[in-house]
Write a structure and sequence with these properties.
Blueprint: H1 3-21, H2 29-44, H3 50-64, H4 68-82
Helix pairs in contact: 1-2, 1-4, 2-3, 3-4
Transmembrane segments: 52-74
Protein name: DUF5955 family protein
Pfam families: DUF5955
C-alpha cells in the first residue's frame, strides 16, 4: 500500500477521534465529520484526486475554526494531504480595501 495513503488514513482517524472527544459545541462539526467520511471513501479507491483533497482540507479547516484542541489534528491532516502534491496555501490576513 502507498505510504501516503497510510499517513492520510492515520491523520483522518486522529482528527475523527479528536472531534469525537471535543466536548464543546462546534457549529460546523457535521461538515467536518462528513468530509472525514468522504476522505475515508476516497482512500478506499486508491490514490485520491488532489483537487478533492484540497477541497476537503479547506472545509475541515474552516469547520474546525481556531479550536486549539483540534489544531494538531488539522495540521497532521494538512501535512498528509500535502504528500499528494496539494500545496499549502497561506491565508492572507486583512488586506486593505481599495476604492
Amino acid at each position: 500500500m502507498d505510504p501516503r495513503l497510510l499517513t492520510l488514513r492515520s491523520a483522518v482517524d486522529r482528527l475523527r477521534r479528536d472531534l469525537r472527544n471535543y466536548p464543546a459545541t462546534l457549529a460546523d462539526r457535521e461538515i467536518a465529520e462528513r468530509e472525514l467520511v468522504a476522505l475515508d471513501g476516497v482512500l478506499a479507491t486508491g490514490v485520491p484526486d488532489t483537487a478533492a483533497l484540497g477541497q476537503a482540507l479547506l472545509l475541515i479547516a474552516a469547520a474546525a475554526g481556531s479550536v486549539s484542541a483540534l489544531a494538531a489534528g488539522v495540521h497532521q491532516l494538512r501535512q498528509a494531504i500535502e504528500l499528494f502534491g496539494v500545496p499549502h496555501q497561506p491565508v492572507q490576513r486583512g488586506r486593505p480595501a481599495t476604492r
